[in-house]
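Fig. S4 source data, part A: sequence.
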Amino acid sequence: MPDFLLYALIAGVLVAIMAAPLGALVVWQRLAYFGDTLAHSALLGTAIGLLLHINPWWTVFGVAIVVGSLLALLQNRPQLSADSLLGIISHGSLALGLVAISFSETRVDLNSYLFGDLLAVTRDELVLMGAVAVAIGGLLWRYWDRLLALTVHAELAAVEGLPVARLRLLQLIMLALLVAVAMKVVGVLLITALLIIPANIARPWARTPEQMAWLAIVLGTLSVLLGIALSIWLDTPTGASVVLAATLAFVASLIAHRVKTA
């Protein structure tokens, strides 16, 4: 197997493993648009990295943290509706990123940032993804029960003494890390799809939160494998093919569940 294909398979599986449990939390908390906003801000982070001639990974992570913190701050203002705020920041950061990239002296393949370039993952990027996957996995293992309590009822979790603000910050940091590494796999426009589609497929078939998270990991991994196969067979963009595979699995799941409950 060629190295580039092996790297692509490993990178895709790593991102699927990270995205699935985080996606379950996002789906339960109805934060899909929040994740979408963080993903769109990744392009602005990339532009800043290119303009400053530093590794865009660090600026993507930094911008995602800043945008997430700004969202958390502004959502406390009653005169701003959450959906309008998310839409403004999401599209505003995406537009600013596109404009900023036009000023970069470095030649940029914009499609690779928007839709991913999984088959171009390097060994160094793979090592970074592995480190991030270990970090996110360790944090989820350590704080899973507390994050679930926050998801079920934030006010009750606060009454019981859980550090709600810190837990939300922790979840934001993990999402920012995921966005920073997933941009290479599926691109900024499709990151949210990899977050929410496997989790939504798993939701009606799982009886416990843990079952949903593990099933989402399996489904996300299968979507990556099938998407890469479709990309090679049909010569289509890899990131889009991965998301298309996940979408087809979602449709098949809906039909199967409807037949089961009929």
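Fig. S4 source data, part B ends here. The chain has one domain: 3-188.
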